[in-house]
Amino acid sequence: MAETVTPLPCLIVGLGNPGAKYTGTRHNIGFEVVDRLSKSWAIPLKEERRFQGEYGVGFGPTRDKVYLLKPTTYMNRSGQSIRAVLDWLKLSPAQVLVVYDEMDLPLGRLRLRLSGSAGGHNGMKSAIAHLGTQEFPRLRIGIGAAQRQGEGDKAVVSHVLGNFSQAERCTMDAVVDTALGVLTKALTDGVEKSMSLYNNIDLSGE
Predict the structure, then answer these.
(1) N or C end of the chain: smaller count of CB under 10 Å?
(2) What's CA 52's distance to the chain center, in Å?
(3) Residue-wise pLDDT tens digits, 68-92
(4) What would the DSSP string read from start to end of the chain?
(5) What is the rounded (10 degree) CA torsion for 105, 111, 115, 121?
(6) CATH topology of domain 11-198
(7) pTM over 0.85
(8) Which helix (H) or strand (E) holds 38?
(9) Whose CA is closest to 101, among 150, 51, 164, 42?
(10) Are the CB atoms for 112 and 191 separated by under 8 Å?
């Protein structure tokens, strides 16, 4: 029986909310990573109405074609944009890699996975619903848990839509740099190889 080969991802999606008031917030770290890829790989992003997002196509580290996407649907409808690109390019969900913020990971940590649940993240809930599967790779970027206890959803919303402190921002700049390495390795040698190299790195400085 032939061994199943996991396809290399070629569509990198960063999750976030559009608009100046959300720029730099914890919930928009996925956007930041895609912006960094756009700059590093010289793949310009432009508004593409048919995809409901900012979209770019170019060549990544392997010189194979790479597609970048920042859905502009707002977080909880991100899956609509991802589905539109998948259908247009005729890609499978396994060829998509989604980058997003994760409260269950400490600030300064990254986790690359081949599949998994949404874990309460509204953008990932939408992605899973529209792709019809949890079987697609994702890079979770730690933003730490909400500090204020006992305020429930209000504290969570305040946390994810808040800005990083100056010290946190320094850490997150290093995280975004590292995410570039994670994704370069994933596209070059596969997600599993990148996971083995990067999943235990702690950039918090603690």
Answers:
(1) N
(2) 17
(3) 999 999 999 999 999 999 999 999 9
(4) -PPPPPPPP-EEEE----SGGGTTBGGGHHHHHHHHHHHHTT---EEEGGGTEEEEEEE-TTSSEEEEEEE-S-GGGHHHHHHHHHHHHT--GGGEEEEEEETTS-TTBEEEES----TT-HHHHHHHHHHT-S-S-EEEEE----S-TT-HHHHHHHHHTSBPPHHHHHHHHHHHHHHHHHHHHHHHH-HHHHHHHHTT-B-S--
(5) 30
(6) Rossmann fold (3.40.50)
(7) yes
(8) helix 29-40
(9) 164
(10) yes
User: 53-59 and 46-48 as β-strands: parallel, antiparallel, unpaired?
Assistant: antiparallel
pLDDT of residue 26: 94
Q: Tokens 């070059």 identify what position?
A: 188
Tokens representing residue 165 in the block? 């402190």
Q: Is 27 considered catalytic here?
A: yes
Pair of tokens at residue 144:
């730490």
Q: Residue 112: beta bridge partners?
A: 139
What angle do helix axes 191-198 and 166-189 make, rounded to 10 degrees? 140
Whole-number mean pLDDT of the chain?
93
The domain segmentation of the chain, as residue ranges, is 11-198
Question: What single-letter amino acid sits at 67?
Answer: Y
